[in-house]
Amino acid sequence: MQVFSKKNNFNCHPYLILVLCLYFLIIWSVNLGIAPGLHGDEAWSGLKANEISKVGIHNLNGMNYYTGMLQALVADLSFKIFGLGIIQLRIPSVVFNCIGLLVLGFTFIKKKQRNWFIFFLIILSQSSLYVLSPRIAWEVNTFTLFLFSILFLSLWELLQKKEAENKFWTIIFFLVNVIGTYNHLIFSSISVSCFAALLFWTLYHRSSSHKALLIILAINFVNMLCLFLAMRYAFDHFNTVTNFTLPFIIILVMYLEVLLFRKVVLWDIKINLLKIPQLVIKGVLTLSLLMFSIFHGRAFIEVLSAYKLFLQVYSYEISPVFQITMLSCSAVFIFYLGVFMYKDFNNNSHSIIVFLIMSYCGVLNLYTLTSSFRYYLIIYIIIAFYLSYNVSKDPLKSIPLLLSFFIAFIVISYIQIAVLSTSTRPMRATKFYIGNDQIETSEHFLPKESLIDFLKKNKTGILEDFTDNHFFIEKPVEFYYLIDPWEQKTENKAIVKYDFTNPGTGFILQIKKNGD
């Protein structure tokens, strides 16, 4: 199975790669401490990092059972190097995303696929999801692109060589999946989808050409299941000694798994002899697409059209003209994706990627039926890989798609410049619907500087009369206090409410003294 052809009739200038990478570095780092406002989840990671630096790690789980402590650990390292601050809290996200791009660039250029990488960067540059997410210090934003890049490199190496003889990249593949899943459970959806896609592809084409890779994916699936159960039921009970020895135990287990794999791969397992009708496999994959369309389709289109992401993260209300423009670009994106997938489905060389996209659409529904824009980081990057490959073969056949990329890039860049060029832009808190009528809000990303100045001026840090979950106000205030403490008088209490009506700071702030 040759997943991608090396034939390419179009050559892009190599310096375009440098220009695009520089664009990402600028767009991810300019005014990093100002926009967006500090989110409660980011502040939690910063506070946890400070706790780790003082008392160490006493819990392997993060904010919940399906996340780990990697974000807090890299924040702790950043604080040790650069000191406490919001920029310092977000630097690791920018750094790891940049490293992810470098690893992908190394992989593509090493495999003589420079044009493919350039068009991949172009697609990423007009994605509000990947323009905005590295600016927010969430675990999925920080590590998804980085870990995906290593996963992609390891898979490519396993595909290009005899899997049974590639011990190093097999261990890397296992290790990256464990780290990514520990960071956030949703990362495991990549390898689970790869397993399902390759199994479906093997049965559909009745080919055993990648039996070894299928066995690797099956072993990895067991790893993911065991890790999930440990995160769900055991990690809260581990002690400091266990926390220290666990990484060494995991690496040892993976080495033993590779030895086991080298034995199992010699067995005469003839998966291709299972005669499942192709119509059944088509039906399962079509059902996967249908379920994704029902539960995630609308939200994914909102990711492509960008304006609700900017509304949530920047409280930036886009004009109807821009909304229609971005929706039109999204329609072109979906149209070309559908055309390429339909054409490649029965092509033995390229169909595995189509199987992967369709399988992932089904697998994501097993992880979550709710909408959150961060959940689409993985599916977007997989689709970006696929689209960029098809476009790179002959860009002249995809002129409307490339034009839509250019228009979306101009709109997104305009908004970024409008937001990042000033720190005093009037805004208001907003509530809106995403996906299947799920309520989302911009209030948690409001800049907190005006609130902190108010608290300092009135010498208080005691908050009450919230209009929403107090976590998203209290944690940022605690982190600001950690950075720069101020005098607080117990008799003064701040009443904090969100302003949904008048553009300004987004807050309605009042002071309440004892006896009032």
TrEMBL record:
Ranges annotated as spanning the membrane: 12-34, 89-109, 115-133, 140-159, 171-201, 213-235, 241-260, 280-301, 321-342, 349-367, 373-389, 401-420
Keyword Calcium: no
Gene source species: Pedobacter panaciterrae
Keywords: Membrane, Transmembrane, Transmembrane helix
Protein name: Dolichyl-phosphate-mannose-protein mannosyltransferase
Source organism, top-level taxon: Bacteria
